[in-house]
Amino acid sequence: MKSVYMDNNATTALKKEALDAMLPYYTDIYGNASSKFYKIGRDSEQALYQMRVSVAENLGAVNANEIYFTGSGCEADNWAVKGAAFANKSRGNHIITSKIEHHAILNTCEYLEKHGFEVTYLDVDEYGFVSAEAVEKAITDKTILISIMTANNEIGTIEPIKEIADVAKRHKVIFHTDAVQAIGHMPVNVRELGVDMMSVSAHKFHGPKGVGALYIRNGVRIDNLIHGGGQERGKRAATENLAGIAGMAKALEVAVKNLEHSMSHCMRMRDRLIKGIKDNIPYCRLNGPEKDGRICNNVNFSFQYVEGESILMMLDMHGIAASSGSACASGSLDPSHVLMAIGLPHEIAHGSLRLSVCDNITEDDVDYVIEVLPHIIQRLRDMSPLYEGVEK
Q1: Most distant CA atoms of the chain, gap in Å
Q2: Would you call 134 helix, strand, or coil by DSSP?
Q3: What pLDDT digit, counting tens, does each position of 167-182 carry?
Q4: pLDDT in tens, 204-221
Q5: What does residue 29 show for φ and ψ, rounded to 5 degrees?
Q6: CA–CA separation, 290 and 301 (whole Å)
Q7: Could you tell me the pTM of the whole model?
Q8: Among this protein's residues, is 328 annotated catalytic?
Q9: Are 92 and 142 in contact (CB under 8 A)?
């Protein structure tokens, strides 16, 4: 059976370059970077510094000390939102975000609401765009934080981050962006975007799982998330995952170096998928923008009269890996909060399918999906009493 992996928005395969960069830190340079009184510890400390410099350069940070390593993108999101909220609560208690953020942001905001903070959840348009004008209208004299994602993990919408950052700067409000789904799929430079904080997760751009980073611009006040030792300049305790950080730094370097080629290839595969599905399956809807403003590797369709989970199981029987939305919410029976926010009714939101490509996907892989998917949808519709009425 042919095997096609099209769930790269959930996670990606580890690049060989990243694996090779990690191996020495399991076997040779295995010291604790905080143990500075002997050579193997100092070697680890120096290696960690060089990794920090590499990540900073590839994200466009001014200084290496603006990069803080975390255990995941979710941790980075939690730290950014909670840390900024609690560190600045003397100035105000109002936070602005959008209704289509990752649950790492939404659930953290709900937590903060239980601790005296007020949160405005901004609407999006039918394509998932947040407007800078809406952000500005929502700002009050108590607003201390704005958090809007760079690119949506379900429908691929790229938000106007630079414009929103300009609004935040004019009003002297801290601005955080969750760039977990953007890195490796579009140019991302923290200086050019003008953001104060940005979250990153290595396994979304062919690095290892269990490691991420939070960019914090120098001068931004943020509370510690993990208390204990003095790692990460005293802000995030825990012995650094040296091997994981090495893999992330190398994966990011490769992603930035190959970005133009990777984006061009992924766009071709994405557009081939979209056209093939539209041409061969009736009663389907592309979620998110058609091309402009869509991340290069994302395809998200809703199919009427079928359930998304059934599509996934039948695709799996044909060797195709896909998803119906965010992997972090895959255990939920509720329809996607993103699809609901762009105005889809429950019955259509339940029939969604996300296909996400990478630079390893070939035209043959895409054509195989286009060949298999219409038969799956038709088979499921043939069993649906709702579709029977449509046919008649």
Answers
A1: 80
A2: helix
A3: 999 999 999 999 999 9
A4: 999 999 999 999 999 999
A5: -105, 70
A6: 11
A7: 0.95
A8: yes
A9: yes
**Cα 143 to Cα 162: distance, rounded to the nearest angstrom:** 19
* Coil/strand/helix, residue 26: helix
DSSP 3-state of 64: helix
- Relative to beta strand 67-70, strand 212-216 is antiparallel
Residue 321: C-alpha distances to residues 177, 299, 340, 354 (Å): 29, 14, 24, 10
Distance of alpha carbon 76 from alpha carbon 82, whole angstroms: 10
SS percent in the chain: helix, strand, coil, step 5:
45, 15, 40
Lookup: tokens for 129: 């765009």
**Given 74, 266, 296, 328, which residue is catalytic?**
328
Residue listed under structure tokens 């649950």: 103
Tokens encoding 84: 């900024």
Tokens matching residue 147: 């958090």
Total number of residues shown for the chain: 392
Sheet with 212-216, strands from edge to edge, namely 67-70, 212-216, 197-201, 174-178, 143-147, 94-98, 118-122
**The pair of three-digit structure tokens given for residue 151, joined into one six-digit string:** 């690119």
- Which amino acid type is present at position 299? V
Q: Which amino acid is at 244?
A: G
Tokens of 264: 């061009």
| Other CB atoms within 10 A of residue 34 CB | 14
Contact 199, 76 (CB under 8 A): yes
Distance, CA of 381 to CA of 225 (rounded, Å): 49
Long-range contacts of 74-78 (CB under 8 A, 24+ apart): 74/102, 74/104, 74/201, 74/212, 74/328, 75/212, 75/225, 76/199, 76/200, 76/201, 76/212, 76/213, 76/214, 77/102, 77/104, 77/105, 77/108, 77/147, 77/178, 77/180, 77/199, 78/104, 78/108, 78/225
CB 374 within 8 A of CB 381: no
- The alpha-carbon radius of gyration of the chain (Å, integer) is 22
CB under 8 Å, gap of 24 or more: what pairs does 181-184 form? 181/9, 181/149, 181/150, 181/151, 181/152, 181/153, 181/295, 182/150, 182/151, 182/158, 182/295, 183/252, 183/255, 184/252, 184/255, 184/259, 184/262
Rounded Cα distance, 297 and 359, in Å: 9
- The one-letter code for the residue type at 202 is A
- How far is the C-alpha of 227 from the C-alpha of 169, rounded, in Å? 30
What pLDDT is attached to residue 326? 54
Structure tokens at 89: 């609560």
The proportion of the chain whose per-residue pLDDT surpasses 90, expressed as a percent, equals 92
